[in-house]
Design goal:
Blueprint (H helix, E strand, L loop, with lengths): L1 H32 L8 E4 L9 H14 L6 H6 L5 H13 L5 H17 L9 H10 L3 E5 L5 H5 L1 H4 L9 E2 L12 H10 L6 E5 L2 H9 L3 E5 L6 H6 L4 E3 L2 H6 L1 H6 L3
Parallel strand pairs: 1-2, 1-4, 2-3, 4-5, 5-6
Helix pairs in contact: 2-5, 4-5
Length: about 260
């Protein structure tokens, strides 16, 4: 009995610490943005690295596609560029290495190669605890949106299969819906417009530095889940209000997060 009471006390203290961490992040956010309050009604989810454990496949596919046309590229670079549209990623690499933008034919060829390599990787698993978190958030009545830089049809089309009843087409923003993808704020601003809520009524769940940058530029509170190999400081430097280790941690700490603003 004493051991049980001790464990309960420790959990209570841990929950209080978490609540203080979230409260501090929210206070800083409100002070910086000069918003009247923070009371989320909608949650915007990135897809790759958040809902699907797909970034390892994307990274290896990008490396193979770039190397096939004699462009040096690493998996780490793929993670750093995550969130961009495919053509934007290719353009960025060409500007950096060759001092020019890629032609439309070059972009088409490389992205076709990348897509083929990705499809050859086989089925993409769900991210651990993504389903549990979505179930919890849906049960609590939040409006759920998808905001992704992906143009990979197999993943986008499989959302209903993997997460039935969660994502509706009219509540999605993909690479096909924007002119300027992440790190530009356009994807998140479009989702904000679709949702009909105010910026202080949204929480964004991201894992990519450029996705975090886009969300922050749109004026939204951003929780980064570090599901890849990047240093947590990279996500914080790009403006994440809170950086967590995994989707499991976010799932387990959702209630302390809610308690910090309710």
């Amino acid at each position: 009995m004493c051991l049980l009471a001790d464990n309960i006390a420790k959990l209570s203290i841990f929950a209080q610490i978490l609540e203080k961490m979230f409260s501090s992040a929210i206070r800083s956010f409100l002070l910086q943005k000069q918003y009247p309050f923070f009371h989320p009604k909608a949650v915007f989810f990135d897809m790759d690295g958040v809902l699907f454990d797909s970034m390892k496949f994307h990274a290896s596919s990008w490396v193979k596609a770039m190397n096939a046309v004699n462009i040096p590229f690493t998996k780490y670079e793929a993670y750093m560029n995550e969130g961009r549209t495919g053509h934007s990623t290719i353009d960025d690499v060409y500007h950096r290495l060759l001092g020019r933008g890629a032609s439309e034919e070059e972009k088409r060829k490389i992205y076709s190669l990348k897509s083929a390599y990705f499809e050859a990787c086989g089925p993409t698993p769900k991210m651990a605890y993504a389903q549990e978190l979505l179930d919890k958030i849906k049960t609590k009545g939040y409006d759920i949106f998808l905001v992704t830089g992906s143009g990979q049809p197999t993943l986008i089309n499989s959302l209903q299969e993997h997460f039935p009843g969660v994502f509706q087409k009219e509540k999605m923003v993909t690479a096909f819906d924007v002119k300027h993808g992440k790190p530009a704020p356009e994807p998140y601003l479009k989702a904000l417009q679709k949702s009909g809520v105010c910026p202080w009524e949204v929480v964004v769940i991201e894992n990519a530095p450029l996705g975090v940058e886009a969300s922050v530029a749109a004026g939204l509170f951003t929780i980064a889940v570090n599901t890849g190999p990047l240093e947590p400081e990279v996500l914080a430097k790009n403006g994440a209000n809170v950086v967590l280790d995994s989707m499991e941690q976010l799932f387990r700490e959702w209630e302390p997060f809610e308690d910090s603003w309710k």
